[in-house]
Amino acid sequence: MATVFLKRKISPRVVNGHPWIFNNEVEKIDGEATGGDIVEVFTHDKRFVGKGYINPKSQILVRLLTRNRADEINEQYFFDKINECWSYRKKIGYTENCRLVFGEADSLPQLIIDKFNDYFVIQTLALGIDVWKPAIVNALNKIFSPKGIYERNDVPVRELEGLPQLKGFLSAPFDTEIVIKENGLKFHVDIENGQKTGYFLDQQDNRRAIQHIVKDAEVLGAFTYTGTFEVHAACYGAKSVLGLDISENAVLQARRNAELNGVQDNCHFEVANAFDVLKQWGKEGKQYDVVMLDPPAFTKSRETIQKAITGYKEINLRGMKLVKPGGFLVTSSCTNLVNPDLFLQIIDMAAKDARRKLRQVTFQKQAADHPIIRGMENTEYLKFLIVQVL
Ligand code: SAH
Q1: From the CA of 149, how far away is ligand 1's center (Å)?
Q2: Closest listed residue to residue 326, CA positions, set 369, 297, 365, 359
Q3: What local confidence, expressed as pLDDT, does residue 148 receive?
Q4: Confidence grade of residue 16 (pLDDT, cut at 50, 70, 90)
Q5: Which of 197, 263, 335, 363 is 20 to 30 Å apart from 110, CA to CA?
C-alpha cells in the first residue's frame, strides 16, 4: 500500500477531521499508487492520519475513509458501513424513504444512496468509490433484499475523476416509474429520467412545514419540479395552487402527482421561466397569499458565487412583491456555497428593495437523513425559510 505524506504547513482541516486531501497539500508519495487504490496518509512528521482512496487524475488526490489504522478496506468494510448508515436512519426515524448514504457525512465519500421504499438509487461520484460498486450492491442485497437497484451516474462531476457518465440497472431490470408515499401523500418518482436520483428527499420535512399557512390560501409555487410542495399545499387545504417549472417533463409529472392525490381541480401546473413570469405578474399587480420558491443551485463553483447571489436576490425580490401584505414567502436554497448567514442576508437585501418587512416563521435545513457534520461546511447545504411578508 502506498503512503502519502502531507506537507508540513497543511491546514489543520485534514487533521481535524475533513476527509479531502488536495494535490497541493501533499509532500511526497512513497510507493506506487494508481487511481482507485487505498493509501495510508501521514503527517510530514510521520503521524498516522487515515486511510483513503487516491486518484492522481483528480484535484482532490485522496479522500479519507477511516482514521482507524486497524480498519481493513474490503467488501466487509463497505457492508458494515452501509449497515451503520441504516442503523442511524432507523434510530432517527427515517425508514421508508430516506437518503441511506450521504457521502462524506457518512464517511463514505462521494457515495450517495437514496432508498425509495424497496428501490435503491446509487451515485458513485469518484473513482475510488466507483471501484467498490459491486461490494456496495452486495451489501444492499444482503441488508434489504431490494426489489431493484439503479445507478444514476449520469453526472458531469464524474468526468473530473476520469469516469464516464452512465445510468442503468444494478439489479434485474424493473419498472423505474415507481410511487412513493411521503407525509401521507403519494408521488410518482421516475428513477431513470428524473432529476438527480429522481426525487428530492431532502425537503421531506420542510414540505410539512407549510401545513398551516396554506390553509384556504391562494398559492403560487415556482421551480416546482414534480409538484411536491404544491400537491402538499393543495392537500393541506389551499383554495388554489399554481406551480411553475421551466421543464415540460417536470410539469407533466407534477400534473400526474396532483391527479394521484385527487387535487387536480385546484392544483395546476404550467411550463414557464419563473424569472420572466414573476417579474411580469409583479408589474400586473397579481397577489398571492403564499409564494413558494425552490430554485436550483445557480452556481457550482465559488468563482461564480456572485451569480448565485444575484439569482437568489432577484427571484426572492420578485416573489416577495407577489405576496399580499401579511402573506407568506416560503423560500429555499440548495447550494452549500451560499451558507445560512449569507442566504439570510440575501433575503434581507431583497426585502429592502421590495420595501417589505419580514417576520421569520421558521428557518430549517435539510432533513436529518442528510446529516450535517459540524465543521464540514459542504454537508450543510439546504436552507428553508418561511417568512411572513408584512
Ligand atoms: N421543489 C422541488 C425541487 C425543485 S428543483 C421539489 O421539492 O421536488 C429546481 C427546479 O427548478 C427544477 O425542476 C428545474 O427544472 C426548475 N428550473 C430551473 N430554472 C428555472 C426557471 N428559470 N424557471 C422555472 N423553473 C426553473
Answers
A1: 26
A2: 359
A3: 98
A4: confident
A5: 363
